Amino acid sequence: MEGSMIEEDELPVLAQFQYLRMLIVNAGDRDDEIFLERLEKLLPPKSLEELYLRHFCGRTTPAWIAPELLDGLQYLCIEDSLVLQRLSDRFRGSEGNKWKIEGLCLKYLPNLEETWEEIKSAMPGLKYVEVSHCNSLKSFSCSVKNIDFWR
Question: For FRET with 107, which of 56, 96, 150, 151 sits at 20 to 30 Å CA-CA?
Fold first, then answer.
């Protein structure tokens, strides 16, 4: 909904939905500092299996999109984020803590300056990837300008 704002006292509520399996975060192309700070403080429940981040206007993904915080995540979709340049350091995980994600969708992220090797390294169990209009993504084995798939 246009004009909606996450209030400070609402941030912890999301973590209480212990049976939530899918979450769609539509940031609505909002780029004001207060909104981005509050979005950074969001704490989704560990039960999530699917996460969609849309119209996000930060330069780096929120730190809570990390394997140690979303260890049950199986599918991640980041799309329509024209400003996004990097995946956060926490996104990459650590040697003993990698993503269990099997499906990944990256669409309309023209400024995402990551290498495909780094993404694959963070997600060793990937089975299906959809990439479209990610012109700055480096070394992806298929076209990054049009819709393409990797299996």
Answer: 96
Residue boundaries of the structural domains of the chain? 8-150
Query: Of 122, 69, 72, 75, which Cα lies nearest the Cα of 95?
Result: 122
Q: pTM for this one?
A: 0.87
Residue with tokens 């599918």: 75
Spatial strand order in the sheet of 50-54: 22-26, 50-54, 75-79, 103-107, 128-132, 148-150
For the record, the structure tokens of 143 come out as 């076209």
For the segment 2-41, what is each residue's pLDDT rounded down to a tens digit? Answer: 456 667 777 778 888 999 999 999 988 888 888 888 889 8
Q: Where are the alpha helices (DSSP H) in the chain?
A: 33-40, 116-122
Structure tokens at 101: 């994600």
Q: Which CATH architecture fits 8-150?
A: Alpha-Beta Horseshoe (3.80)
